[in-house]
Structure formats: structure tokens, C-alpha cells
């Protein structure tokens, strides 16, 4: 990982794609996808971010075309959004801040970005470029939530689902069920606790449902737990069902849905837990993520002012990151340039001292002269490289890297071999001796 590449991204989200297209873009293993992307030619770093309403991948490559070619194997729909270096960075910042979420300002996305980072790091896919970008994105997310009101009120898909049930159906004197005891299921249960008479927690692992039940504290709500083996029977007496298992298959077959009583159902998963056929059943009112988006538009409007401030934060941190990248890029090239010059200087000084009969003081003068020559010769290129970085002149940067990063293990460059360091010119010798005599 050289740390010299550009970030290239691909995103499929609820903004551009339907629920079916999102389901088609779903990947089975984030870690395996990161590993596969890292194996693509020219890819130095990789990151995959997958949530209930987005599937995204980012790679670091020498140029945008190489990165986009690497991501071609990742894209499974024409709804995928292709992003270049700066667009990828800004998009990642917006995601972490919650501006790209179905529920604007939701808190869960920050943890999901951190989890994606840790997954990629475990695959040795995080290098200096993505490390800086993700770290800055997390800072943007934290600032957005501490410096603005972006996460006031409804702050997750789960809480939006409960809010929808409250406003559309009502929670008082009802029996509600939450299917799934993961992060979203737990959040939904916490919001329902104390608002409904009876709450049923159904999960594949009953022990996990019991653990969630133990964490709920409202005395007004009776909490029961169940497995998924006989889910139709478990849901039969329920007025409200919020499903959040994250299963790759339906948790209820169409026939089981027909056997339910009049039920208000909110499916907040992708892929769906409840089959699309349930949408057409008159005794069921089914909301999925696509329908939930229209409900959350009210929250989006309420947070418009906060979102404007978050955009300012994104602009600030975006400029800082680009400056950071530019400084590192220039420093890397300048360091490489000086290292090459220092190696050549050291080799030639060793040759000169071996051939010339200089005492310690004379050697010190020669070394000082060599240092001065190197510094003077490289002063102009150093300034030019810093200017090139500030002006986004990456062509000059990459050219300098190629010029000043020779494979020194195979010997010095040809122009060095052609130079004759067997003798030091008499004029230089005389100047050195004169200087030494003056010091005496």
C-alpha cells in the first residue's frame, strides 16, 4: 500500500434504487468482497459498507479508470452510482453524518461505518488513504450529532417504524410483536416498551430474545419471548408487527400471511422479511422501506436547518482532508527525492574518500560541500512539488515519483555511472585546502 492512490467508489442506495434492486445488490460477505476487491489489479485498499438501505464499495487505485474497472465486478445493477476521488470522499462524509440515510440524522450509521472499517482492516485492506478518509468521516458524523440538532427526535428506521405505527394505527391497548432481536429489532422493542400493553419478542435464538426482554424496564408492558418455529401462531393475536430479522429468506410464507388477523405490519429489512404478496392482502397493512421513505420525509423537512449546518461541517472537514492529502503527497515525493539524492551522495563520497588522501577535517568540508550542492539542487524541485500539490497537479507529482524513485538495489542510475569520481578536481582540492589552512 503506497498511500499515493485516489479513492474510487460505487454506491447503490434507496435514493436511486428500488427495494428489489437493493436486494439484488446485496452481498453475502463484506469481508469476502473486500478480499476480492483487494485482489483486483491496481487496487491498494478497499472498503465495503452495507446497511439496510445501501450497498457501497470504495477502492484506492493509481487512477480513477483502474478503480472503476476493479469495481465493475462489484456492480450488479445499472442503478449503481460511480464516484471519483472527491465525490467518494464527500459522499462518505454525508453517509457518516446521516444525510444519506432514510431517516436523516440516524445514529446507527456511525457504528456501521466503524464496523465496515474494522472488517476491512481485518483483511489488511486499510492503508493511509482510506484510513484518513474514514477517520475524517467518523469525525464529521460525531460533529454533526454534537454540534447540530440533526439527530433530534426520530433517529433510526426502527424508531420511524414505531412512530408510523403510533400515528397510523395507535399503540395504546395493543399487542405488538418485534421479529428479530438484532440492533434494529432491539431499538424497535425499546421504543414500544411502555407504549403497548403486551410485547412479543420473536427471534431465531430464544436466549437472545430473553436477554433483550430482561433489558426492558417498563412495568406497563408485559413482555413475552418466542422462537421462529411457529411464527404464524405467535403473531396471530398481535395488532402490530415490526419485522427486522435480516434473514435472506422470508420469515412468513404468503399462506401464513393469509392466516393472520387484521394486522399493521412494518418490514424494515432488506431483503424483505414479509413477502410482497402480503401487500395485496386486504386484512394486512404492510409498510416496507420504500413506503417508509415517504413517511420519513416529514422528519427530513424538520431537520432542514440542521442539515444545512451539517453541510458546512462537511465542507470544513473536506477541505482539511484534501489539504492533508496534498501535504502527504508532496512530502512523500520530496522525501523520496531526498532519499535518492542522499544515497547517491553517500556512495560517491565513499568512493572519493577511498581514492583521495583526506584527513578528517578535509572530509568534513567535502561532506558539507556535498550537502550544500544537494540542498541547492533540490530546493527548486521541492518548491515546485509543493506548488503542484496545492494546485492539484497530480501529473507532476506522479512524474516526480517516477523520476526520483529508482530501483537503487540494481545499482545507481546510468547518468551516475557515467560520472568520473575517481579524482577530485584540483580547483576543488585547492579550495578545500585553503579553507582548512584559514581555519588553522
Automatic annotation (TrEMBL):
Pfam family, one: Shikimate_DH
Catalysed reaction equations from the record: (S)-4-amino-5-oxopentanoate + tRNA(Glu) + NADP(+) = L-glutamyl-tRNA(Glu) + NADPH + H(+)
A biological process from GO: protoporphyrinogen IX biosynthetic process from glutamate
Domain Tetrapyrrole biosynthesis glutamyl-tRNA reductase dimerisation as annotated: residue spans: 310-405
Pathway: Porphyrin-containing compound metabolism; protoporphyrin-IX biosynthesis; 5-aminolevulinate from L-glutamyl-tRNA(Glu): step 1/2
Keyword annotations of the record: NADP, Oxidoreductase, Porphyrin biosynthesis
Top-level class of the enzyme under EC nomenclature: oxidoreductase
Subunit field text: Homodimer.
Family under the similarity heading: Belongs to the glutamyl-tRNA reductase family.
Function: Catalyzes the NADPH-dependent reduction of glutamyl-tRNA(Glu) to glutamate 1-semialdehyde (GSA).
Notes concerning its domains: Possesses an unusual extended V-shaped dimeric structure with each monomer consisting of three distinct domains arranged along a curved 'spinal' alpha-helix. The N-terminal catalytic domain specifically recognizes the glutamate moiety of the substrate. The second domain is the NADPH-binding domain, and the third C-terminal domain is responsible for dimerization.
Protein name: Glutamyl-tRNA reductase
